[in-house]
Amino acid sequence: MNGAAALIHTLVAAGVDTCFANPGTSEMHFVAALDRVPGMVAVPTLAEGVATGAADGYGRIAQKPAATLLHCGPGLANGLANLHNAKKAGTPIVNLIGDQAHGHRPLDPPLAAETENLARTVSAWTRTCLDVHAVGSDAATAVAMAKAQGGRIASLILPSDVCWQDGAVPSPAVAEVPRGRIDDARIDRIASLLALADARTVLLLGGEALHGRGLAAAGRIAQKTGVRLMTNTSIRKLARGRGRPEVQRIPYGVEPAVQSLADTTHLVLAGARRPVLAFAGPSGPARPEPEGVSIPLLATPEQDIEDALERLAERLGCPVSGPWPSAGDRPSAATGAVTPQAFAASLAALLPDGAIVVDEGVTFGRDAFSGTAHAAPHDWLSLTGGAIGSGIPMATGAAMAGQGRRVVNLQADGSALYTVQGLWTQARARLDVTTLIFSNRRYAILFNEMQRVHAVPGAQSAALLSLDAPALDWVRIAQGFGVEAARVDSMADFNRLFERSVRTPGPFLIELMVP
Amino acid sequence: MNGAAALIHTLVAAGVDTCFANPGTSEMHFVAALDRVPGMVAVPTLAEGVATGAADGYGRIAQKPAATLLHCGPGLANGLANLHNAKKAGTPIVNLIGDQAHGHRPLDPPLAAETENLARTVSAWTRTCLDVHAVGSDAATAVAMAKAQGGRIASLILPSDVCWQDGAVPSPAVAEVPRGRIDDARIDRIASLLALADARTVLLLGGEALHGRGLAAAGRIAQKTGVRLMTNTSIRKLARGRGRPEVQRIPYGVEPAVQSLADTTHLVLAGARRPVLAFAGPSGPARPEPEGVSIPLLATPEQDIEDALERLAERLGCPVSGPWPSAGDRPSAATGAVTPQAFAASLAALLPDGAIVVDEGVTFGRDAFSGTAHAAPHDWLSLTGGAIGSGIPMATGAAMAGQGRRVVNLQADGSALYTVQGLWTQARARLDVTTLIFSNRRYAILFNEMQRVHAVPGAQSAALLSLDAPALDWVRIAQGFGVEAARVDSMADFNRLFERSVRTPGPFLIELMVP
User: Fold this and answer.
1) Range of the domain at A59
2) What's the whole-model pTM score?
């Protein structure tokens, strides 16, 4: 068996059965092997950023890695931005990259590039396969490395000769690396702190603390102690909506972020990193919490936060609770003019049970999170690394993993344009994705930032930050990529189309004209 | 004056007056300064690959660098593929990248990334500006470094605090680094060789030998000695068409490339690198030339090949020639079915005088080069680094530099999709670009490569290599980005639309249905 076949056999045996691909000539033996080796679903993408962003969305929902298949050098480079987002999220990905045959590379053919150096900038583990006999074991190791510490990027570079040579042997799965266990002394210290705490203490949740066992334990702790549950601005996956513990998010903006933590005395890191503002300006803070706040660590995102929270709940004597009582009514759909608040109300009213919300809403979408706390139960995934262009691909991958759950992509127009090609993959795979384009025809966040630098946009800068002249026509763009679409400029029309879309299998795009 | 203003003053003083931009928050002070400092034209792009590819096209036509303006980390990553192409072409580019403020970066905000490491993979010179007092001199150095050795990428990383602080001083232009001069002994050696040569000797031209003074001298040498003028598959810029010396190109495919050099005894490298095939397979050659051929070096692409060729022509006693006599008639436009040969004939017949052809035609477009040798005088630019997605951006930048020259982009459909966002910049700037999409709705080159690996595509692999189900609708996509477009499936319709397009200011896209 050749290296490519052994690679696919090994991945499938380790549970990696979905591959988001944008192959080139150096990956042809892998592509050919897909026809002979059963068990791997290969999803075509038109650009590498779609493949890597889809692998991110898939990993967040499936709780296991997808593979990518990228072309050597520049192909990998095109996928780095969404790998950066996945790295910041802690998503497991087996990142496969083809390369020149070993003997050809020193001749400096056109596509020779620093593939390993590029991969290392986003990967916890990077290896170039040196020998056809090592393909199986390298692939099995890559899967284990991707799953370690809650999710990481493992990049395996495959020179084409390693794939075409015979003599390869598939490898059985490598045992998972256990996550770091929090010791009893630390659990006791945090328990003593929380036993005396009130709402000025924040349990800042991240990673696995935001859904499933971790979130259930955090909810019990909050009910017993009265501490606030919060999370950072960037969210890998938060289970929320009616019946689930309510977790507030530190807002993106500087002033709202500072305000959200204003009275905090203790900020307990529970699988979350210490908060930091996205950018520093000439004045103002770098971090959102008040000076002098105490910041004890329960667990880093790499450690076993689910176990730590469950032991903490036991230690505090928290009763096992049923569904979380909802603090408010599910809103009614809004009518009239399109505003951020009206949109959030309609989304909360109409979101189907079990939906997956992908949030790259940026400026217009910023109220959607707080406005949907009492919607039907759903998962919320957001941009995590600040590299815009994650929404359409992430929705694509989440839908592949979601197996019929409706994905609703809250999508800023400027950000959508980086990876708009992902719409075609949604059409090809007939994925249940509703894309909501917030069409304000500008980089609204950058207009806001201009004001923060005390500048009123002049002719040159305003032109640079605008998406008009000519305006982008999202309906035609979507149709061009094979996705049905329509434009609306009132909440009534939005409600009607959105309801129809979530009931109709396959993708749909709504261009929502927003102020 | 703040750092951003000093930066722009310095660039403009050094002749860098065009900037292809996709800024983010960390670049806002640069954007604000554009309103205050005159002389810099900032061109908006919707994705970084468009900005870098446009800078490549601009540099090839303008013979001087454009600047880019990219967002930190992942923004740069998105632009690397077309910087790779520019690096392989030897195009001068001043690559500007914003970054986190110095004090903020250690806090690991979401967009913190290995910006310097990423930049180094494509840059001959990389520097992070450390101090507002150094912005001016760093920028002037970057321009000089970009212009050195015939054209390179110089990357200057600008932490945002360096841009917002006051106390910066613009810097005058730094003197250009002279190119390496070829010594007399080498000129004599090559002259002795060529004096006895015939058509089995190939003068392999590259870089500055492919237009202007360099090409004129090469033409004199060929007329006098009978040697063949050839160039590598990848072409930075070749001046060709009626009245110019005819330069043959080594074809892309393995067998045609080997055939093109079959009788060669001497392969003189005149500003060109030694040929190498794009990929190696399990069998077959790695290089196209016959074994045992002698490969003397006249000059590398980094050295002063124009001077070397002129001195060589003098040493050989070549008379100064007028326009090169054309070896054939300009073809007539073809009618009937769409074939590669018919397309080449129509292009040769209808190409306007002074046009710029951008060639990312890949499979269908492969005959267009040889078929247009006797067209009206034009420049030919091709994909140089194998990183597809260069055509639309390169055409955009070439049109900015061309100032009214019609740009004709021969564009494979699969390749076009990586950077389709560039169409919007063509519409915004009302650029005179005619994009010809060769719509075969598949990655045809990869179907061919599959056959080379002795595999008939099965269901999975054929689906991965196809662009149908759903078919991409290029007319709607183009219109969505603000570019007028039409679909044709006969040469008669193509001729009519193409003629109208080259007479009508602004961009136009023709989706040519090809077999």
Assistant:
1) 3-164
2) 0.98
